[in-house]
Every structure is written in structure tokens, then in C-alpha cells.
Amino acid sequence: MSDIFFLALRRLRAPLVLLIAVYAVATMGMVLIPGEDGNGNTWHMSFFHAFYFVSFMGTTIGFGEIPYPFTEMQRAWVLVCIYTSVITWLYAIGSILTLVQDPLFRQAIAERGFTRAIHRNEQPFYIICGYGETGELIHRGLSRLGLVTVIIDYNQARTSSLQLQDFRYAPIILAADGTNPQVLLKAGINRHNCRGIIAVTEDDHTNLQVAVSSKLLNRDVAVLCRSEIEDEAANMASFGTDVIINPYLAFASRVNMLAHKPALHKIQNWLINQYSPEHITEDRLPLGRWIICGYGRLGKAIANNLDRENIELVIVDPDPIASRAPESTIVGRGTEAKTLQEAGVNETDLIIAASDDDANNLSILMTARQLNPDIYTVGRVSGQHNQVLFKQAQCQYIMRRSQLVANEVLTMISRPLVSRFVKYSGSLSEIDTEQLIDAIGGLTKNRDPITWRLGLNTVEAPAIADHLSTGRKLTVGDVCNHEKLNHARCIPLLLLRGGVSQLLPPTQTELALDDQLLVCGGSRHLLLPERLRDNNELIDTLINRNRHHIPLLRWLANRKG
Amino acid sequence: MNFEKVIFAFFIILALSLNFGFFVGDMNDPAHHHPYELFAALIVSLICTVMKFGDRTQFGSTVLASSLVADLQLIAATIIWGVATNAGATAISPDQMASITSLAGGALIANLLSVILLVIETSQVRK
After folding, report:
1. B98 with B27: CB under 8 angstroms?
2. B126 touches chain A (CB under 8 A)
3. The CATH number of the domain covering residues in A123-245
4. Of B43, B50, B86, the CB nearest to A46
5. Domain ranges of chain A
6. What gap in Å lies between CA A360 and CA A58, rounded to an integer?
7. Are A224 and A412 in contact (CB under 8 A)?
8. In terms of CB atoms within 10 Å, which of A156, A236, A514, A558 comes out highest?
9. What are the chain A neighbours of B55 within 8 Å (beta carbons)?
């Protein structure tokens, strides 16, 4: 506040001095010029009267000549005073209005409001640098989870568009450069309730700078970054960025998984896309001959990460030398039939439109479909509004970079155990994966499953913690399955004990305090561990076989038994 | 030579000298204290305050504070004067004159402090 106040006063120095001077001269004049009282005696106005008269003269001309009618001399002076004081007032008011509209002044006010909002906020929050499509999706997801977000973007137009939208938790917004450490400090990076920083600007280097400054300012804060260039990603990793998401690599590994291990892909897809589904097919991608149109970052990532077994890759690029494509590359954009025929589209099983231009990608997919109706199409879409066109064109697998990043970030923030499971799930054998799919499918009647985390501590699961601390046993099977509550069955996915995670823990595994268990099940009912965690009676009934805590109930149960 | 600095110093010193001019004389003798002088001292003091706005250094804030003190005392003095001369009585009583003069004396101290601070700041400037 004080800064703004003094900034304003400083800018208003000239009009204020002028105003005081004009009032002083006018008052002095009124005192000095002799007047006449009702009887024709010479009379001098006192300072009090003069100041009173000058005060109302400037603002409400025509109040009257008091206490006696003025002499000609006095009237002449009042004339001069009226014009000078009115002009001075106009000048002063004009200066104030100019100041209020001044961008610097507005920026100062906005920053002040931002700092106050940060200090008033006592809830956990995340800082998002860059409010593009990705930032928007992440913000929406976090707001749905009940987390406060602080959004920093240098682009004023984007931040002001945010203010017009409705959210459950209004974000705290600042239009500023996130690479500036001062801005990060203002955004509360050192505050106790800052959970993490998410750098998702369009520019890799900016993300890198944000990550460096954040780690230097506060070592303990989690930093999540988007990076599309591998050098920058390696650089980010070198100083301890917690999570680096490369959407192209992620997409490439998904394509590879979908071609070679579709079951695993299906599980991962189920678990990650619980909030905003990506348009992903669940079918296996056909092996055989593949065409990639566009050998940019995405094209390269796919080509380099693809397991070439049973796949013959043909690359189409308009400028193979500049993009350092392999020698067999076919020159052309792929939007015209000639190039596609040259690439052998009629014998091809799958085509990936990987250029960064939505219109070209659409054209590639539609042309390919015309030439070969059986071809499987994969397309990359950049703009959110174009996604509907790709769906219309019956593209079977649409890759949207922003959504992929947002889903990964949200999963990591809201369900860290799911992220762990996905990370290690590559080690599951084919048979295990198939069995898991069947089990989940049977449980949810082929709908998407939901996941739930059981934290075995006194806060999150008081009843179970009671049970364990009295020395009685509890196995994974006990909390996931009981014949009396068949509809609440669930499947254990991961057991985290002392930082070590065990995938698909067997049912006879015994649970201990401070374990964390990830389970999945259908969404219709509360899952069994969810019901057990704070219900002592239910534990007594289901697990302790009616050995009740309360003597009366125990007696009744025994009598019945 | 910086013209802005000249103006600044001019007003600060003028405020002190006008204030002193009004203050000297018998405490309670209205003949020794002319209202024009008080008026001039108040106006110059107000202008001084405005000139000091916006300097965010420690020095600047102290000078501004002393100037605000002077304003406050002088405004109080003029209000007493206005009440004394307009509320029925035409002549100012020695009691009232004494309180006006002592307020002006307070303002004098504050103005003196401003000038001392100005001198200190000037002496710190390295050639």
C-alpha cells in the first residue's frame, strides 16, 4: 500500500504544489484588498473569511459575496482567482486520472493485490508458470481437487482472460515473467504451504530457468517441468528437478506399448486418464508397414523409441536434410496423394501424421484414408478447437500434447502411487497383465476402474491402525476381499513400504503400520478398505470374527453363534 | 548544479526562516506576531511537504516526517488564530497568543531538524 501511495503522491507533486500556491495567492489577495462594510467603512477580510471564500469559489462559483457585497477591486481579483483556480483544479484532476490509467501504476496495484492474496492464503497451493492450454488443463484439474493455484504468465491478455472465468477456487494471478526470482519469491515459493512449481511455458529454456531458480530458492519444493528437447531435460535433471515430462517421448512410448504390449497400455490408460480422457484407442495397433509423416521432434521420438520387430517404418518429410532424417526418407509433406503413393500407402497398415500443423495433419489422414480405406490413422493435434475435426475425420488415435502433460502432472500430484504403479508396470509379465485386465474387467463390468489409496496410519485409517497396534494380523486379502461384502471387492495394485514398492502384492501379504496400499475397483460403491478404515465395528465383524470391542455386542454375538 | 535540488533546499530553508520570523518576540504579545507571517509559514511548509513526497529512502522518510510535524503544528496554530479572532471577540487574548506562539515554536524545531538533515545529506555527497 505505502509504495503505491507514495508513487501516486510523487507523480502528483507538481499539481499539488500548484494548487497550494494558487490557493495561497488567492487567499492573500482577498485579505489584502480593502472592502467596504454596509456603512461604507473600509474593511479587511480576515484570513478565516478569505480562506472560506476562496474554498467555495473554486468549486461552487456563485455562492454570493459575503459578508458584505464586494468592491470593484475585490471583484476584479475574484475574476482572476476564478479562472486560475478552475484551471488548476482541472489540471490536478487530469493528472490524477492520467495516473490511474498509467500501466505502471496499474501494475503496482496488481502486484500489491497479488502479494496480499498470497499472504492471506493458508491452504496448500501450486505455482503454475505459463498459462497456455496445458496450464489451463492443469489449473482446472487442481481446482477440482480443491487445491489453490498461483498462475504466472508474462502475457497480460491471457491472465486477464482468466479473470472472466468461473472456478471453484479462484486462482491467484500475476502477469509477470516467471524466470525472475523476485516474481517467484512474491508468488510464495518460500511459504510453508507451497507444495510445488509446475513450469509449462511454451519455451523449454524458460521452463529450465524456472526450474533452476525454484531449486535454488527452495530446495524442498517439488518442481515439475515440461521439456521437449532432450538436452534441456538432461540439464533439468542434473540439478534435481523432480519430474520432467517430455510429451513426445511419452507419446512415443505409448505408441510402442500399444503396438507391442496393448494390455499394459490398457491398464495404464485406465489409471492415468481418470479425469479428462484423452482420445486413445484401446485396440492393438496393427503391426506391419508404418508411415510417419513429418520427422520433427514427435516423428523422431517415435522412430527412435519404436521396437522395430514386425514393423517396417517409412518416413516422409518435406526437408529430410534439415531434419536429419534417414536416407530412405521420401521427400514431400504427405498431404498430396503422389507422395503417399510413393511411400506405398496402399500396402501400409498405419499412418502417423506427426507434423506440427493441424491442417496438414488432417489433410494427410484424409488423403491416406481415401487411398487406403483400411489404414489405421494416428494424428497429432495442437489446438484444442481442432480436436473435434480430427474426431470427425475418424482418426483412431489423437495425440494432444497439452492434455497428455496435464494428465501426467495431475496424476503425479493427486495420486502419486498411481504414478509409481505406471512407472514400474513395464516389469509385469504378459500373463500377469492379462490376468489383471480380466480381474479388473470382471470387477467393474468393463467400465473404467477407480483407484483408491489406503494409508495405514492413525490419521487416515484409525480403525485399522487400532487393529494393527493391538498386535493382531491383517493381510492384503483381508482388506480387499470379503465374502459378505461382495460388491465392495477391490484389487490390490501396489504396496509401498518404507519407500519400496511391490507390484500386485499377493493376498497373504501381511500389512504393517505406515504401509500404503493402492487398490482399484468399480466406482458404484465404497470400496472395502474405504469402509474399513474408520469403522471399528466392521473390522470386528468381518475380520475378528465377531470378537467385538463392546462387551454387550460380544455377548450377543456369542449367544447367536 | 541541479535546479530541482536548489528549489528543494530553497523551500526547506524558507520554511525555517519564515517560521522563525513569526516565532521571535514576546510569547503573548499579539503585536510581535503578524498573521501574514503565520500564513506564509504555513503555505511554505505545505509546499515543502509536497516536495518531499515520493523519496523512499530512510533519509527521505525522516525529512517527510519532520515536515508533517511542522504542518500539523502550524495548522493547529492557524485554527486557534481563526477561532480567536472570529468567535465574538475581535482582539486576540494574551493566553491564546501564547499557545499560538508555542505551537509555532514546536513547528520551528521540526523545521530546524529538516534543515539539519538537509545539511547532513549535502555533506555526504562526494565530489
Report:
1. yes
2. no
3. 3.40.50.720
4. B86
5. 2-101, 123-245, 251-414, 449-560
6. 69
7. yes
8. A236
9. 10
Contact A20 B50 (CB under 8 A): yes
Taking CA atoms, what residue in A is nearest to B50? A13
Does the pLDDT at position B45 exceed 90? yes
Say if residue B96's pLDDT is above 70.
Answer: yes
Q: What's the pLDDT tens digit per position in A438-494?
A: 888 878 776 778 888 888 888 888 888 888 888 788 888 888 887 777 777 888 888
Cell for A74?
Answer: 475585490
Instruction: Give the Cα separation of A104 and B88 in Å (integer).
Output: 53
> Using the beta-carbon criterion (under 8 Å), do A20 and B56 form an inter-chain contact?
no
Do the Cβ atoms of B50 and A7 come within 8 Å? no
Q: Considering its fold, how many domains does chain B have in total? A: 1
Which residues of chain A have a CB within 8 Å of the CB of B51?
A: 13, 17
Residue B125 forms part of a structural domain: no
Whether the CB of B68 is below 8 Å from some CB of chain A: the reply is no
Mutate to test the interface with B, among A22, A46, A49, A66 (most CBs of B within 10 A): A46
Please name the residue of chain A whose CA is at the shortest distance from the CA of residue B54. A10
The string of pLDDT tens digits covering residues A210-231 is 888 888 888 888 888 888 887 7
CA A464 centroid distance within chain: 35
Question: What ipTM was reported for this prediction?
Answer: 0.85
Contact call for B39 and A47, based on CB within 8 A: yes
Q: Of 1.10.287.70, 3.65.10.20, 3.30.565.10, 3.30.1360.180, which CATH number belongs to A2-101?
A: 1.10.287.70
- A1-9's contacts with Cβ under 8 Å and 24+ in sequence apart are A1/A112, A3/A108, A3/A112, A3/B56, A4/A105, A4/A108, A4/A109, A4/A112, A6/B53, A6/B54, A6/B56, A7/A105, A7/A108, A7/B54, A8/A99, A8/A105, A9/B50, A9/B53, A9/B54
The mean per-residue pLDDT over the stretch A244-270 comes to 85
Please indicate whether the domains covering A2-101 and A449-560 agree at the CATH topology level.
no
* φ, ψ for residue B118, nearest 5 deg: -60, -45
